[in-house]
Amino acid sequence: MHDGRTVPNSKFAAIFDEIANIGATPNEGVTRLAASPEDGVARGAFAKWMKQGGARIAHDAIGNQFACFDWAGDDAPWIFAGSHLDTQPRGGRFDGTLGVLSAGSAALELHEQVSSGRVRPARNLAVVNWTNEEGARYQPSLTGSAVFSGALPLDDALALRDGAGISLKEALAAIGVVGDKGAVPPSPEAYLELHVEQGRKLLEAGRQIGVVEGTWAARKATVRWIGRASHTGPTPMKDRRDALLAAAQGIAGFETVIAANHPLLHRSAARLVVEPNSPNVVVDRATVWFELRGPSVAELDAAGNLALAAFEKVADDTGTQLEIVADALRNPASMDVTLMAIVRRVAQACNFPPETMRSVAGHDAVALQNRGISSALIFIPSVDGIAHHPDELTHPDDVQAGLTVLTAALRHLVEGGFNATRR
Q: How does pLDDT run along the chain (423 residues), one tens digit per residue?
């Protein structure tokens, strides 16, 4: 167990450590990419745990995994809770995993209460493990929740390819996920997601529970400079069309122009692919993944246009060709006000005064909310705000706070304490 401080009780610790150790390497975090063999093992462990507790397991054609509790009958509406089990390369133990397993633990506790007659359910409950939330192996991120909510066509998602050319459909089949299996629940009346904050706001506020009211927007562009391959030795410098040089200047230009004109935006150039990637060949194709995040779509639009102009200038200066492979805007989300109010009341009743906040990162709850599925996102603290890194940590008392609030909120929803509004 990480520093002996991972999760609050032995049952939770057992499944948390089992999942967190799948794909783990010493001192390098966890690498459990979507639809990888490691992801397949984690899915199996999650399914086994849930089935032992009384759930039935189903998955849809994009691989979203559902642990279903059909308490209220075939015609009853559904409540969902969950997150994702895939990670970034050398990522942390908590991101996503904690949300899935907290939802699973809450569901198992409620199942015992239903079985003993202490809870009278008016709705069914499903714990969900969404496919490819991280977007590390396949882009775009939030793939499974986008397909489920209708934002991304299934065939387009299955046709996505990783860096090795393997389609998502092929990768899912390799871990035994082919088509629908079992009765997949319909669109839920409400979705709750518990997630580690990946920031410092809760720590600074001295709070253990955050209720997310909305998210920042994001603009993500994939840009390619196309040059000409040639020998790095004899080719005269004046004849070179170096795509890697263009990419380097493009990254520096992006940083300079955004920092000067839009300093409050969060910006990154976090992935670079060069071809043919030989030390003796001038690079003829360099592809860079750029990202801007901020609360204002108008500002992202203006900043993105400045960046594109800088990229064009670099192409002219280096004699390369510029290709905009992708340029997508993810709108900000406003989470469901009724669900937020329920979570706030539950948190207060559990003696965890909540902090109202916004999320910079995207989550599956955002994908669902943006497509009209009432959703709420609950944060618990991250030590030092560290995320997507092996040092990711959330203390056990904060995990317990999140689990307590999530369980109480799900009980309220399952018993009928929510009137869904569809947009």
A: 334 345 567 788 999 999 999 999 887 799 999 999 999 999 999 999 999 999 999 999 999 999 999 999 999 999 999 999 999 999 999 999 999 999 999 999 999 999 999 999 999 999 999 999 999 999 999 999 999 999 999 999 999 999 899 999 999 999 999 999 999 999 999 999 999 999 999 999 999 999 999 999 999 999 999 999 999 999 999 999 999 999 999 999 999 999 999 999 999 999 999 999 999 999 999 999 999 999 999 999 999 999 999 999 999 999 999 999 999 988 888 999 999 999 999 999 999 999 999 998 889 999 999 999 999 999 999 998 899 999 999 999 999 999 999 999 999 999 997 776 554
Contacts of 220 (CB under 8 A, 6+ apart): 140, 289, 290, 291, 292, 326, 327, 328, 330
Q: Hey, what amino acid is at 305? A: N
Q: Cα–chain-centroid distance for residue 37?
A: 19
Compute the distance between CA of residue 47 and CA of residue 104 in angstroms, rounded to an integer: 10
Contact 205, 379 (CB under 8 A): no
Instruction: Find all residues with CB under 8 Å of 248, minimum gap 6, and list them.
Output: none
Q: Are 136 and 30 in contact (CB under 8 A)?
A: no
Give CATH 3.40.630.10 domain extents, the chain. Answer: 2-216+332-414
Q: ω into residue 140 within 30 of 0, thus cis?
A: yes
Neighbours of 397 (CB within 10 A): 13
DSSP line for 132-198: TSS-SSSSSSSHHHHHHHTSS-HHHHHT-B-TTS-BHHHHHHHTT--S-BS------SEEEEEEE-S
| Contact present, 320 and 226 (Cβ < 8 Å) | yes
Which CATH number applies to 217-329: 3.40.50.300, 3.30.70.360, 3.20.20.210, 3.40.630.10?
A: 3.30.70.360
Report helix, strand or coil for 75.
coil
Distance separating alpha carbons of residues 127 and 60, to the nearest angstrom: 14
Which phi and psi (to 5°) does residue 149 adopt?
Answer: -85, -5
CA dist 386 and 196 (Å) reads 10
Q: Give the residue range(s) of CATH 3.30.70.360 domains in the chain.
A: 217-329
Cβ-proximal residues to 278 (8 Å cutoff; 6+ apart), any chain: none
Domain 2-216+332-414: give its CATH superfamily.
Zn peptidases (3.40.630.10)
